[in-house]
Amino acid sequence: MSCDLILALDVPTREDAAPLLRQLRGHLRWVKIGLQMFTAYGPNYVREVAGMGFQVFLDLKLHDIPNTVGKAVESLGPLPIGMLTLHTAGGAEMMRAAAAAQQKTNPDLLLLGVTVLTSMDGAGLAEIGVNAAPDQQVARLGRLAADAGLRGLVCSPLEVSLLRAQLPPGMQLVTPGIRPASEAGSDDQKRVMTPADAARAGSSYIVVGRPILKAADPVAAARGILAELNSA
After folding, report:
1. From the candidates 32, 61, 71, 104, which is the catalytic residue?
2. Calculated CA dihedral for residues 119, 43, 40, 101, nearest 10 degrees
3. Is pTM beyond 0.90 here?
């Protein structure tokens, strides 16, 4: 099973992003645009990044009543995006509404259900009334998402093997919380893994931000991660 790299474009402004994207064009395929950049610059920025030749993963983590999420997916579907996120905690009805809207507006769009954020651990789940270990909650939400018609999930790399054992083989698993061994534990991510280990576990895509964005040579950093994925 192959594993590809997604750059998390978590920078303050499009001016910060522009030189990075120019450098990385042709070296990686996927760029993730999250709430920060989408809120600041909107759909036209998605079109701009796609126009540079990147495939866009729009990470908005939609979570609302089913009708609202369905209508949001209908609005976003015509954009040049290949992936879009929603929270599985919104429930099966919400996910079914999103899947129906995706099929109607953009059949090729991969809807990704976010299970448990990689910034959360067992203590964080307990604070919001979830009395289950992160892997148990991820498995529960993953099964719910698959039953609701989603074809992909976002999860910690630590839960990939568990999900692979329980979900249909075609399920796409996208894993943030990826850090080179030298950087593990250096930020707010709590459930992390190295690129090679995530690929071996069965990740379809890994999401990497700071190790590329903060590198002295972002192209070399991206190439190094891709080489690690290929060797795995």
Report:
1. 61
2. -40
3. yes
